Every structure is written in C-alpha cells, then in structure tokens.
Amino acid sequence: MNTQPLKKNISSYIIQTHEEEIKRIAMELHEGVGQSLYSLFTGMQLIEKAIEQPAMKSYAGDMNQLLEKTIQEIRLLAVELHPPTLTTLGLISAMKSYIKLYTSTYGIEVEVENLGVESQISDRDSITLFRVCQEALVNIARYADTMKASIIFKWKKSRLLIMIKDSGKGFEVETAMNKSSGLAAMSERMHLIGGKCTIFSKIDKGTSIEISLPLY
Amino acid sequence: MEFNVCNKSRKDQPFKQACEQVLEELNCDFVGLALQNSNGPDVSWHYAAGNRNDKYKRITVRYGKGIAGKVISTGRPMGIEDFPNNILGKALEYPIMLAENLSYAFAVPIQFKGVLKGVLLVGNRTKQPISESDQHTILDAAKRLEKELNSSI
C-alpha cells in the first residue's frame, strides 16, 4: 500500500494547524492583551494628570512608562509570531518589513528586488513562502559569516521564483541536509504546497537558494 | 553640519580609545560598547575595537534581549562560555556573538547619572575563557567609561 499521500496530508495538516495556532496567539496578543493594556495605559495617564502629590505623580509616571514598554513588547512579539501585513498587504510587503527587522537585529544588509507584478496567492502558500525565506535568512545570520545578502522575487505568468543569495562561508549541501532539520524542513514545506526548494552551496563560494511555486 | 560631524567624532574619541585600551590591556579579540538609545529603550552597539566587520553598527537589540539588552535590564554582569553551546535560549538571540564570531564574552553594565545606560562587552573568538582577573579589569574599565560618559554629556 502506498502511504506517501497519507504522510504528505498528515505533514501538511500538522504544519497548517501549527501556523493557525501561531496566528491565533499573535492575534490574541495584539487584539486582546495589547488592547486591554492600552486601555489601562490611557486610564493611568488620566490618573497621573490628576495626582497632585509629587512622589505619587512620579510613581504613576514610572508605571506608565513600564506599561508603554510592555505594550510595545506585546506588539513586537505578535508581529514576530505572525506578520500581520502578510494577509493585508501581501508577501513582498511582509518580507520587506521582516528584512528591516532582520538587518537591525543581525547587521546584515539584504538587497531586495521585485521583478514583475505580485500575484494574489493563498494564505497557506504565502505563509509557507514567508517561513522558508525567513529560515534561509536566519541560516545566513547563523552560519554564513557575511555582511550582505540578496533576495529576488520573479513573478512570472505561471510561476513565482525566489532566489536568496549570499557570498558567505558556504557548506556541503548533502552533509548539511542530513544534519540540519531546518534545511530539510524548507524543502518539505515547499513540497507540501506543490513547490520546490533547491539549495546550491560550495565552501567559501557562498550559498544560493531557489524557491519556486506554480501560480494558478 | 561640518561642525557637528567634527564635534561628534571628537566626542567619540574617548570611547573608541577606551575600547582599544581594554583590547590591548586584556589581549582579547573584541571589545564593544553598547548604549541605550536616547529616544527609546532599545540598545545599539556604538563603538568597537578588534571588530572583523561593521555589522555591530547596525545591530540594535530590544531592552531585555540579546546580551546588551539583558545586562541593561538586569543591571548585572553576564558571561557566555563556549558559544553557541550551553546557552540560555537560541544562538540567534545573541547577534553580537554571531556577528563577531565570538566564543567567549563577558559584559558589564555602565551607569549614566545613576541610571543603567550602557554595556561594555569583551569577547574572544578562540577557546580562551575570560579569567576572573580579566573580569575585574573589565569592571574597572567600565568604571572609567562611566566617568567619561558623565563628564562628556
């Protein structure tokens, strides 16, 4: 009996459920906890203004600052978990926003090029593409030892091609694929949505990752 | 505009020199100074000595995140040994260690007018731990930098 389609369905179901749960937590943090904290913050600001005793006013001010910091933390955490722009503004916008954060976190400059007109893709496909690109960039920060990388999006009539390149340390693809579950997961994720992820790398010659997805 | 640039580089000089002095004194591989941004809680790396690239200039960590953010939020020194092994959390949470390819690091807080505002980090790329006496030297250097900071701003 061929169990491959069943395995593919199960993997796809697990990944999709996982993504939906992450999205739910992100929404809950942003819309629920974040909003409640914001209400508290505005209330505290009113209380601070009304207090006349200097010591208590200063204490209320400190509490307000802490609340503001916490609200910002919650917002950033929600965005880190699931990019809200992915559904509203699309893949390119979400990737540009992620790359901005990526550069300010790891100090690696990423050149983004978008060729062609961005097509509408399903939520499931766009989150998969986003996660695969994210994994590729994170691997560059972790292992490539480079200052620059590039990402090119090519929108063709029937296919989307994404190329992520760096001129870093490079690695033996076969050995790394057997060792790193991250690299294998990138290929697996793309396979589950009918796409492909191919990794080219040579020691001291950098790495190039090609992602393709048929567009219908 | 030109005046501001000259003025800024003149202001930067003592901090750069302090980093280079620590680098020489301890014979270590990397020394970095991070400061909390004036317009928010985020922490950025401003000065370095022994750096392999300029990545540090673009790295900003949130208050409580990364080595710099953690040291500022707790107000206590922090040591990392044999990175990326035996660390708390993920290696990706330590961008300066990744950017400078460090294996060992020791970071101490720096106060400005009694408030924690900066971090001095000393690191090694080789398997050379930072000894207890080196840690004292780093703490002394941090005190010197505190004086510089307080007198310059």
From TrEMBL, chain B:
Every GAF domain range: 15-148
UniProt cross-references to Gene3D superfamilies, sorted A to Z: 3.30.450.40
A Pfam family annotated for this UniProt entry: GAF
Record's protein name: GAF domain-containing protein
Lineage: Bacteria, Bacillati, Bacillota, Bacilli, Bacillales
